[in-house]
Amino acid sequence: MGVLSPAEVVRAISNASKHKAETSWLGTIILAMMAGGAIAIGDIFWANSVVKLGHNVAPGIANFIGGFAFSVGLMLVVFFGGHLFTSSTLTAVTVAEKKIDTFRGIVSYWTLVWIFNFVGAALTAFMYFYSGLPFKYGGWIAQHFVEIGAAKCSLPFLEAFLRAIFCNILVCCAVWIAVASKDGAGKIWGIAFAIAAFVGSGYEHCVANMFIITHALLCKAYYLAQVGGDINALSELLHHFPVAKLANLDIKHFLLNNELPVTLGNIVGGVLFVGIAGLLGHKEDVEKLPN
């Protein structure tokens, strides 16, 4: 029972991050794919937990419930030992403590994790789509993914970037709490509340979006085929969702309008506002800890 002190958490994160960054390339690929798939499973649970809840009850209640449902994704990552890009930005602490020689090595690690998070998330999106499950409840889930994917691809760069900073502050704080907690229940509740705050507030997570927008592209293609390729008819099917936003739901806007600013914002949030802030803020106490 109990928790580690903030200085002990900094030391534990630094040591754990060093271990993760030095994992073999094969191990990193497997665990990064697992993490991408785990976050996708959280997305699926979120979607199924809030089916029409925001329309029929209240958006705030839907956000609260959906946030807790989504948190299962990070729980799977933490307890399985997955390599998730957003939380892996905490390896910046390891570099700052000079436990890893070069920042270039960390960037290589981040790149490998980002790519295979994408592979795991996209693979899960294809599996989920072809399972037929998104078309339950009159197709509400599939249609909702098209709408949310189109909205994400239509975000201005600065808005996506800032939302991503907020997101990864909470994701990395969730990891911080999980490391601080000495028992499983503390880790679970800490992750659940921090992640619910991120999801419920509408922030942007690059790995979650890898699943959401990939799945949205699949669902858009499916519905376009149903209406003969007429995007105006698709707009009517989706309760007059703006045609301009539907047009933005493509691979180019996915990568440049969403993944680019969101990835950069996630890096800033994790590196500066949690990792380096935690290290500098508790530096004197960390130096007093036994080696």
Walk me through this protein's architecture:
There is one protein chain. With 291 residues, the chain is mainly α. The chain has a single domain (6-288), classed as Glycerol uptake facilitator protein. Helix content is 80%, strand content 0%. It is built from 16 helices and no strands. Helix 2 (25-49) packs across helix 8 (103-131). The two termini are 23 Å apart. The relative contact order is 0.17. The mean pLDDT is 94.
How many strands appear in the DSSP assignment?
Answer: 0
CATH architecture: Up-down Bundle
| Discrete helix count | 16
The rough form would be described as elongated
The CATH homologous superfamily is named Glycerol uptake facilitator protein
- The level 1 CATH classification is Mainly Alpha
SS class: mainly alpha
Helix and strand run: HHHHHHHHHHHHHHHH
Low-pLDDT stretches: none
Q: Evaluate the radius of gyration.
A: 19 Å
Strand content: under 5%
CATH topology: Glycerol uptake facilitator protein
Features:
elongated, Glycerol uptake facilitator protein, mainly alpha, 80% helix, 16 helices, 291 residues
